[in-house]
Amino acid sequence: MEKVLENGERILVCLSSSPSNQKVIDAAAKMAEAFHAVLTAVYVKPANYDGLPESDKVRLQNNIKFAENNGATIITLTGNDVPVQIAEYAHISGTTKIVVGRSGAKRQHFWSKAPLTEQIILNAPDVDVYIIPDSSADIKQQSKKLNLASQIRPTRRDSLITLLLLAASTGVGLLFTLFGFSEANIITVFILGVLIIAVLTVSPIYSIVSSLASVLLFNWFFIEPKLSFHTYEPEYIVTFGIMLISSLITGTLANKLKENARRSSREAFREKVLFDTNQLLQKAECADDVIRITAQQVKTLLDRDVVVFPLTENKELGGAIELDDSPYYRTSGQDANEAEIAQWAFVNQTAAGAHTEKYEWAKYLYNPICINGYCYGIIAIFLNGENLEAFEYSVFSSIIGECAMALESIRNAEEKEQAAIAMRNEQLRSNLLRSISHDIRTPLTSISGNASNLMTHYEQMDTDTLKQIFTDIYDDSEWLIDLVENLLSISRIENGQMDLHLSLDVVNDVIEEALRHIDRNASQHNIIIELSREVLFARMDARLITQVLINLINNAIKNTQVGSEIRIISGKADNNIYVQVKDNGPGIPDSTKPHIFEMFYTGQNDVSDGRRGIGLGLALCKSIIEAHGGTITLTGNKPAGCCFTFLLPAEEVTINE
User: What's the number of CA atoms in the CB half-sphere (13 Å) around residue 302?
Assistant: First the structure.
């Protein structure tokens, strides 16, 4: 890519339905590789594309796919002036080289148009044009082949419209005659009738027929001798000729305008589908949304059955996606070896099925959704022997490309998130080891020192000293036990291995159970119990909620001054049970509150005995409460102190007597 940007070379190759067009494309691809250039393949879609033979359409699609496989970007233009449009696009896109095939067609007369290659050279004199010998018909001649059978399609509706308008034109002409209007006005009426017929009918044959019929009707009803095709005045032959030519020109122009309007409408719709797809995919939040949007947009664009085969969690191709208990928009059955074809397209990252070399007998065309060598799945469209127009296929390929880029962005975001989680976990592990190594040293040193004193000086110690040493050893060991219990609980929650054993329990009973296991220094504080008189039920794991209460109460005991007031309150608000632990201690700074439930966050304050918590207790409480479908918050307790509140969904108990 750096080389492309440096030399700025851009090569344009002309696409056609010529059998030897692949030779031209191959030469352009080799040239692009040699010059390290960007390769663009341009097809100018003629106005009469629908009338081209089916064999030409199939060859065109194969040539387009061949160009894509050789790394070309496909561009579809619309119009009949092929050399001018190719030259204009070359100027706009900054093309430096044009590669085109040369046919054996020669200029028939000096007034006839020059061959396509000469016209491109004349219209793009500042661009190098490379001509590859091509023995098949000229590109423009190929594009102008008409399938007359498809052009002449009489219908009852169009025939009736033609007859009625010719009759109306004749009737208006007869009225003009009665009022003494000139023949020029009557001729204008007939030309107007031809114009209206050309606009209202589908097939262009009706404008030709109506032009001839207008001349004959004018001669029959309005030229002496009337009611015959003879004329006394020789100059009327010139009038008939001019009238016929005017009618034909009018009808032809009306048909061209009508066809251009239809084509513009179709292409505007397809471009809108592509634009909408881009907008919708930008809003997609997950791979399933991307797949769903893509399938819906392809269905909207092509109006064909669409089936998607996405990747599974094991990065393997799965079966057809089920949407509302049925495959995506499938109403036309499926191929006998559908899974096999989809798997082949997935592995080879190449389209398979209808109109391809592999499994060409299939009814569906299986297209891989891939980018940068990574395939995200397969999208199949039902063709059943039909083929897509060049422009349709171009827009379809663009939608597939947008889908692949959206899936790539989601995958990259997921990988970044996983990398961030892995980094965070690694940081947590580092913090854990650092915190444990720092914080566990004090109680272990105390236990070791007290045990050593007992071993060496036991006999010399009085009863009060021994009791104090035993108490210190007990307190330090209890601290270590709490630490280990919190570590195990956090580990189980983080790994998703904590199983909640839910049962219907009385909240006040759980609070009373927690009070039996709080820190022995609770006696140094004024603990006030304010439990609801109403019997409150919640579905909970009583053991874990007890642990939450013990952590909150012990936290208040350890971080408030001796003699502080600690309140435990329970009640019911709306459909929730709330439990509060309030204290009137020094409180927590506002800057610390947003981080208080983060793992390993300990704030700035050290407790008086030199031991710091490693920041697991409150993080554990938050994880347990959220696992129960509740919430836990920290607020200030005026005038001073903290208030921890957690909510649990309330349960109603019905007693059947």
Answer: 28
Task: Judge residue 286's burial from the number of C-beta atoms within 10 Å of its C-beta, 0-12 exposed, 13-18 middle, 19 or more buried.
Answer: exposed
Closest by Cα among 444, 308, 416 to 368: 308
| pLDDT recorded at residue 313 | 76
Helix (H, G, I), strand (E, B) or coil at 436: helix
Other Cβ atoms closer than 10 A to 22: 16
Pairing of strands 565-573, 526-530: parallel
Helix (H) or strand (E) run with residue 58 in it: helix 54-69
Residue matched to tokens 């019929």: 213
Q: What is the pLDDT of residue 154?
A: 67
Domains of the chain: 2-148 (3.40.50.620), 153-261 (no CATH), 284-413 (3.30.450.40), 441-494 (no CATH), 503-651 (3.30.565.10)
* Closest by Cα among 160, 10, 131, 14 to 75: 14
CB neighbour class for 1 (10 Å; exposed up to 12, middle 13-18, buried from 19): exposed
Amino acid at 493: I
Per-residue pLDDT at 219: 74
Task: List the beta strands (DSSP E) in 541-595.
Answer: 565-573, 576-583
Which of 386, 381, 393, 260 lies closest to 329, judged by CA? 381
Q: Are 371 and 406 in contact, with CB atoms under 8 Å apart? A: no
Q: Write the CB contacts of 433 (distance below 8 Å, at least 6 apart in sequence).
A: none
Residue in this structure with the two tokens 């797949």, named with its chain if needed: 291
Are 353 and 365 within 8 A, CB to CB? yes
10 Å Cβ neighbour count for 279?
A: 10
Residues counted in the chain? 657
Q: What is the DSSP string of 338-373?
A: HHHHHHHHHHHTS-EETTSSSSTT-SEEEEEEEETT
| Both tokens assigned to 291 | 């797949």
Phi–psi pair at 382, nearest 5 degrees: -85, 120
pLDDT means per 10 residues, the chain with 657 residues, are 54 87 90 89 79 81 88 80 82 86 57 71 85 54 42 71 86 84 80 77 73 78 74 62 66 68 68 79 84 83 83 77 52 75 87 83 87 86 78 79 86 85 74 64 81 84 85 81 71 65 89 85 89 89 87 88 91 90 88 78 48 60 87 88 92 62
Nearest to 244 by CA among 185, 298, 194: 194
pTM of the model: 0.45
Rg (CA), the chain: 43
pLDDT in tens, 541-600: 888 898 889 889 988 888 888 889 999 999 998 889 999 999 998 888 888 888 888 766
The Cα 403–Cα 282 span in angstroms is: 10
- Of 435, 315, 430, 619, nearest to 422 by C-alpha is 430
At residue 361, the pLDDT reads 84
As a whole number of angstroms, the distance between CA 425 and CA 419 comes to 10
DSSP string for 183-238: HHHHHHHHHHHHHHHHHH-SSTHHHHHHHHHHHHHHHHHHSSSSSSS--S-THHHH
What string of DSSP letters covers 255-291?
Answer: HHHHHHHHHHHHHHHHHHHHHHHHHHHHH--SHHHHH
- 574 vs 64, 209, 507, 577, 578, CA distance in Å? 66, 82, 16, 8, 10
Report the run of H or E that residue 254 belongs to, with start and end. helix 235-283
